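[audit] Reproducing an earlier prediction to check determinism. Same input, same settings, fresh worker. If the tokens differ from the archived copy the diff job will pick it up downstream; this log only records the rerun itself.
[audit] input (335 residues):
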Amino acid sequence: MKLKILLLLPIGLTIRPLKNLNAQLSDPVISRILTWKKSSEKPKWPEISHLSQHHKTYWSQWDRLTVVDGILYRKWENTTTNDINLQYVLPSADRNRVLLLLHNDQLGGHLGFKRTIARIRHRFYWAGYTGFVERWCKRCTACQKRNQPSHHTRGQMKTYIVGEPLERVSLDILGPVTQTYKGNKYVIVVTDYFTRYAEAYGVPDIEAQTVADKLLEEFICRYGLPLQIHTDQGSQFTSDLFIQLCNKLHIDKTRNSPFHPQSSGLVERLNRTIEDMISKFVPKHQKDWNQYLPYLMMAYRSSVHETLGETPCFMMMGREVRLPIDLIYGGACGI
């Protein structure tokens, strides 16, 4: 059986901790900081006053820099969890390739500056990294083509208070879109309100039987029963079959107001995000978007949600998922 792997690592990135050290030693700025830290004596200002601004930035953070197994890291406090992590001080030669993985790659998802900088911050540090990432995102051709000003009128949003995963999930249909080679032209989107964890499944139709089977076999059998499912008033959700499914599983079923179908802001925002991510990767014929969908949903779930301050994966599973970048450079080290 031949497997088609869409995700490819950039040439030259190998899984070798020793390479991290050698890369730092080859960087003229970081190598000097590494030498200073190994000597355990902070240089005096007259010794560094003639050096570049980057040298001075590292020098000003002397107490936050540490050397572990010969490699330079910076201590960073996660204000959400109060944990202290070690950020690998990334040499200049690797920065473009890291941004390709964490922003441009399918598991990066072109998710914009805020989510990209959060991914960087959980793993890496270098002097001036915020400006570097901001310039990268602004110059990203795929993002600029898609990110046009939006003038859509938003409906009134209602706030739902939830306190744990799978207390309330939303179920929505995205499409119809261009039919794929496999015959799929709709996307079923399931989102957990508490964790913002989401799954998306390509389907050929949105008949009640198709939707019920996908929800039961792909979501419920994997994650368990939600207490409540919220939908719009689509015929597939108001059908006897779907209502019987909820009743049999003792799931409370709610729906949008008929005069305010746009009131579920959570669903609307996620649908726009999915459409944006897909549009930045699919070819012009758009007939293979379903091949990209699993990778892009992983990108969404593994990026920090602005409202939560954590990734949906962490909120749902209590841990972060391992990404290719973590195999290459090693995950964030906790203290």
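[audit] rerun output stored. Observation attached for the diff report: Confidence is low (pLDDT under 50) at residues 1-15, 151-155.
[audit] end
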